[in-house]
Specification:
By secondary structure, the protein is an all-alpha fold. The protein is built from twelve helices and no strands.
């Protein structure tokens, strides 16, 4: 068992190690730190995440700021998309009312909303709506600009909505008919049949939505009014020709994205392994 695990780990690490080796060789041959810094310079930043970066705070603080923005925008998308998806998947009339409407907005890239959200929200943040002046919470709320949250929300909303509808529609009709025959109420059908049956599809949509939300983060943090976050660090470091910080920021985005995706995969494996066994 231990040998198989080591072999699997070695195979998984082979490509990343090869990539790092090629990167180091090219960087040394170019010998231009602005065009391509060496691996050790980038990894020094990654291995010292609490060290200050060109007056931008530490990499860890900026990653946590970015994560909080994604978490808020993503949570709003989940709370809105899941109930709507359940209703659209279960009630044909509700699906007819909203399917065309949402279908028009679904192909629009989140970045296309940037001019509008700037006109609508400007640099307004959540701190505007909460009376927490001169407190640590107020400082944190000021970093949660509505324009950023809207873009993250739009990125996560449609994958969650589509997967929820798909999960409800794929619920076996015999379960619903049997429940109605036995006198189950609509509430019981929703809570005890539809939601549990659609849960694997909903969680899969949440995983995809979180990935899209995290990808939207960098573009959201490039909006006016942002003075923190990984996206802002990348753009500011680029303007100062600090390519090592740019690459470190990109890698940190990728690492956090992988960890978030892995957490959902672990949840799917532990809670919904029966789906894979039955197919």
């Amino acid at each position: 068992m231990g040998l198989r695990l080591l072999k699997k780990l070695a195979v998984s690490l082979a490509t990343p190690l090869l990539f790092l080796g090629v990167w180091q060789i090219i960087a040394l041959s170019i010998d231009n730190i602005i065009a391509l810094p060496t691996v050790d310079k980038v990894f020094y930043i990654l291995l010292n995440p609490t060290a200050p970066l060109i007056s931008l705070g530490s990499l860890l603080n900026n990653v946590m700021t970015s994560f909080s923005r994604v978490l808020v925008g993503y949570a709003l998308a989940v709370f809105v998309a899941v109930p709507i998806g359940l209703a659209m998947g279960y009630k044909p009339l509700i699906n007819q009312l909203f399917s065309t409407f949402f279908g028009m907005f679904r192909p629009i890239p989140p970045l296309a909303w940037v001019p509008l959200v700037l006109a609508w929200f400007g640099i307004t943040s959540l701190a505007t709506f909460f009376p927490f002046d001169a407190s640590p919470l107020f400082v944190h709320l000021r970093r949660l600009q509505l324009a950023m949250l809207f873009i993250i929300f739009m990125g996560a909303f449609f994958p969650i909505l589509t997967s929820t509808i798909h999960g409800v529609r794929n619920t076996r009709k015999t379960l619903l008919e049997s429940a109605r025959t036995l006198g189950a109420s609509e509430k019981d059908i929703m809570c005890k049949i539809l939601i549990p049956a659609a849960a694997p599809s909903i969680v899969n949509g949440m995983r995809i939505g979180l990935g899209v939300a995290w990808m939207c983060l960098v573009s959201a943090e490039m909006l006016p009014g942002s003075v923190s976050g990984v996206g802002y660090v990348i753009m500011h470091a680029y303007s100062l020709a600090r390519t090592d910080i740019v690459i470190a920021g990109i890698i940190s985005i990728g690492l956090v994205g992988v960890l978030l995706d892995y957490s959902f995969r672990l949840l799917e494996h532990k809670k919904f392994s029966w789906v894979h066994k039955s197919t």
